């Protein structure tokens, strides 16, 4: 295919895996990987009336509550519908349809955001909405929040992209990430050409981080000439479901201060707390209450999202990050990065502001809001317990309590036969398990290998989100599958060992 | 600040410009740069009642029509409001508020998108919405569109980010970009570590590209061992406002075929055509009609956005790209990249589908839709003409016709005094011009240096978007400023020359 009149070097294949950026090709994102893709095919086949071993696909692979039937919060959607179509405000029926605080909030936002939802806003988000988010943070923490430190974003993902882009210069730059971790971290670290420095969460201690291990990892990396730039903490945990003790948070902050690490706190599950005696404390709050020296020096990025919590507004993509103790020139760079994509979507911005400033007692919408919130959180709590009980009742399965977030992450004892079969197929054993689970039951999960796990251990992540009406069925199908899987591969393993 | 017990190498300043990714620090994005930031300060000051030399800020720096008072399209917003708050569909007043085709469309989308706007969709966009976009593309081009080749996106920016991330491996990889260009290209090429290979548009030939120059640039780059990966074309032009002739498009396609370049066609202004005798042809259509060999081999990315056109729905961030003749493994990588951010926002996806499938003659909403569209496009046409006439009436200014898009890009003869003053301040002369224009008149523009221009030439980009009621005032203020600027710096220059 070379042309003769232009004899200089040129890629033989301009558009092929071999000539793409190798970091892109190497990046992995299991949450939407092969199992999720196959589940979409099954869903299509069911729709077309094809006979399958199951009559429904249960999407337990992703924290996406509304796809499983969770209702949206009425107050949020009412305000958003008026912002979409402001002419409704002048319609005589509007007062029948909308409570007065909904109309008032919509009028406030529409009069304060130039051009409404149809115009680009400031790249960090519309001022009024950042103010409302800041008020919510202040109410939550009892400490001031400067809107200059706030970036509204399309979900929490952009915060992670921005930080990785800013901090990673080459593969010598490391980010300390919990293992298991949400693969947004491993994927973006790879995409932007850095190195993930793992620290293992202690499953036997309820998935807490231990200082000794963190220190060893940092010291080992530095002795190899690596730069350790930041520490990622996910609290409440994903995929692990733990809620950190405040003391543990203080330990992590002191470690960041001592080692001059930027603390990246993924706090998107901050309203998803189920365990008795557990509370969410933001890293901002904890930091601010550790004395003026630390409070004014540790660089912290606190991330939040509208996709999680009890509201689960995944589809509109909203979020924010607060950058604490960031020097102005660095903030200017993050502003520039945001400005290159102009601005986050306005509906997502508005929804984030509503979440951080929901109706208060006495407001016309408060009672409905509170009852909707209560119903969802209580139901999530029941579902979490049902799932954990289910896993604890299975042979060879251990499962920590789901203290918070939206996931159970049980540990499986994998029969030798399954490990052999997986090895033969070039897969991880827990991938084999999850794929067979999908093929036989329609339940979509993510193998622990997609999040990272201690070598030789095997896990499955499942959300706690199927509706309560389905949950018992999911639990039964899962248990039956597990029993059959174990039997089959224990026999296979035994047979192979016998014939070896 | 070094601690003694940990004597290994460590960044002295973990969070400072000196330790950030240098590609981020080097990237520039003038559209939201210093002039735009200062204009926001002025706006705030006016709001607080401060006396300034002007009583209003005219944001002509960015294609953001609704911030300047352009009304949104009723049909789009009606459907979107129902999708936000589906309970409205069951309200007895809904039939008074909404025409039947609006209700029908909302019902179709809500019943076809699992979880509605509150759930993550497929990472490439909800199937029904991709189908509607595909139908729109087919209607536009007269050629089939496979939804497997479509990615819905948050505005057009993600398409550019994805392509740059995928194609650029190191600074040896080059992307051919028009100069002047929209700085999303220069910024992302820098961010992802590649090299911008410029090709100059011929101002004297209505900003067309010339084959001879393109060939010289590619040959020169290759002779230095560079890899030329892709050719960016912006049609209609930004900041230059030209509409490419079909013949010119064919030439560019043949050039990409011969040089094995990926054609990145930025077609976000496809409905913004004002010049008599000019029409928009998508590169997809032109390619498909150049014979089966080319049609099946040239890799093309065609990008569109909901932010431009006559609708200008900037704030909700919607867009799509169609990847034509991309090998499946490469499409898989682009899918993965999209999946790492889960999905584009649903309101933006829906708006994109509505734009590509608007009401048709006979539909209840058609008449209103058509009259709103006509009014906006006719007004834009009048404003484009008024601005061009204004610039042509200024001393030392040349201005090509605004054939399409949303911008005039007049060329200024810069007095020596202004060039000296700018040099003294370490600025570009057109930056000085635009900053003084803002300081004295409140008109916000972007200097030509933010887009790139032939050395020794100076330009200003201004949108054609101020409302017609303001347009005469903007034109007068601009003319008066220009006259005073020229006089001042011609005198300064003369005085300095005299005293030298």
Automatic annotation (TrEMBL), chains A, B:
UniProt xrefs under InterPro entries: ALAT1/2-like, Aminotransferase_I/II_large, PyrdxlP-dep_Trfase, PyrdxlP-dep_Trfase_major, PyrdxlP-dep_Trfase_small
- Which cofactor is recorded for it? pyridoxal 5'-phosphate
Q: Which CDD domains match?
A: AAT_like
Source organism, top-level taxon: Eukaryota
Residue stretches making up the Aminotransferase class I/classII large domain? 98-476
- Keyword GTP-binding assigned to the entry: answer is no
This protein's record includes keyword Transferase: yes
Question: What are the alphabetically sorted keywords of the record?
Answer: Aminotransferase, Coiled coil, Pyridoxal phosphate, Transferase
Q: Which family does it belong to?
A: Belongs to the class-I pyridoxal-phosphate-dependent aminotransferase family. Alanine aminotransferase subfamily.
Q: How does it assemble?
A: Homodimer.
Q: Which residues form a coiled coil?
A: 204-231
Upper lineage ranks? Eukaryota, Viridiplantae, Chlorophyta, core chlorophytes, Trebouxiophyceae
Give the catalytic activity: glycine + 2-oxoglutarate = glyoxylate + L-glutamate; glyoxylate + L-alanine = glycine + pyruvate
GO MF, one example:
L-alanine:2-oxoglutarate aminotransferase activity
Q: Name one GO biological process term.
A: L-alanine catabolic process
The protein's matches in Gene3D superfamilies, at most eight in alphabetical order, are given as: 1.10.287.1970, Aspartate Aminotransferase, domain 1 (3.90.1150.10), Type I PLP-dependent aspartate aminotransferase-like (Major domain) (3.40.640.10)
The pathway noted for it is: Photosynthesis; C4 acid pathway; Amino-acid degradation; L-alanine degradation via transaminase pathway; pyruvate from L-alanine: step 1/1
Name this polypeptide is given: Alanine aminotransferase 2
């Amino acid at each position: 295919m070379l042309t003769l009149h232009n004899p200089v070097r040129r890629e033989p294949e301009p558009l092929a895996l071999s000539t793409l950026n190798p970091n892109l090709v190497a990046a992995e994102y299991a949450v939407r990987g092969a199992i999720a893709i196959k589940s979409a095919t099954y869903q299509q086949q069911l729709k077309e009336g094809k006979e399958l071993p199951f009559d429904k696909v249960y999407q337990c692979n992703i924290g996406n509550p509304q796809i499983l039937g969770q209702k949206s919060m009425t107050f949020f959607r009412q305000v958003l519908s008026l912002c979409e179509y402001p002419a409704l405000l002048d319609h005589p029926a509007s007062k029948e349809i909308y409570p007065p605080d909904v109309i008032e909030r919509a009028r406030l936002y529409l009069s304060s955001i130039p051009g409404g939802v149809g115009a680009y806003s400031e790249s960090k988000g519309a001022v009024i909405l950042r103010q409302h988010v800041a008020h919510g943070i202040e109410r939550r923490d009892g400490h001031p929040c400067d809107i200059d430190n706030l970036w509204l974003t399309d979900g929490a993902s952009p915060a992670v992209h921005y930080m990785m882009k800013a901090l990673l210069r080459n593969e010598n730059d490391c980010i300390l990430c919990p293992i298991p971790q949400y693969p947004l971290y491993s994927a973006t670290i790879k995409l932007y050409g850095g190195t993930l420095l793992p620290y293992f969460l202690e499953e036997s201690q309820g998935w807490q981080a231990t200082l000794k291990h963190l220190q060893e990892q940092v010291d080992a990396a530095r002795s190899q000439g690596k730069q350790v730039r930041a520490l990622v903490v996910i609290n409440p945990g994903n995929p692990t479901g733990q809620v950190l003790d405040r003391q543990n948070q203080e330990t992590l902050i002191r470690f960041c201060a001592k080692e001059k690490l930027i603390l990246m706190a993924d706090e998107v599950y901050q309203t998803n707390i189920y365990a008795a005696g557990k509370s969410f404390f933001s890293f901002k709050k904890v930091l601010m209450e550790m004395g003026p020296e630390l409070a004014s020096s540790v660089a912290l990025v606190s991330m939040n999202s509208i996709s999680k919590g009890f509201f689960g507004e995944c589809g509109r993509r909203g979020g924010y990050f607060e950058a604490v103790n960031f020097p102005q020139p660095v903030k200017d760079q993050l502003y520039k990065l945001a400005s290159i994509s102009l601005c986050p979507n306005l509906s997502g911005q508005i929804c984030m502001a509503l979440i951080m400033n929901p109706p208060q007692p006495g407001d016309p919408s408060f009672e409905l809001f509170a009852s909707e919130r209560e119903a969802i959180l209580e139901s999530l709590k029941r579902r979490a317990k049902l799932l954990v009980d289910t896993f604890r009742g299975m042979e060879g399965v251990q499962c920590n309590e789901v203290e918070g977030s939206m996931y159970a992450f049980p540990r499986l004892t994998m029969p030798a036969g399954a490990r052999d079969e997986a090895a033969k197929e070039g897969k991880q054993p827990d991938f084999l398990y999850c794929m067979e689970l999908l093929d036989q039951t329609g339940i979509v999960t993510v193998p622990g290998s997609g999040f990272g796990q201690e070598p030789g251990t095997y896990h499955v992540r499942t959300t706690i989100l199927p509706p309560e009406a389905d949950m018992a069925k999911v639990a039964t199908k899962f248990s039956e599958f597990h029993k059959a899987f174990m039997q089959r591969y224990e026999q296979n393993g035994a047979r192979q060992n016998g014939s070896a």
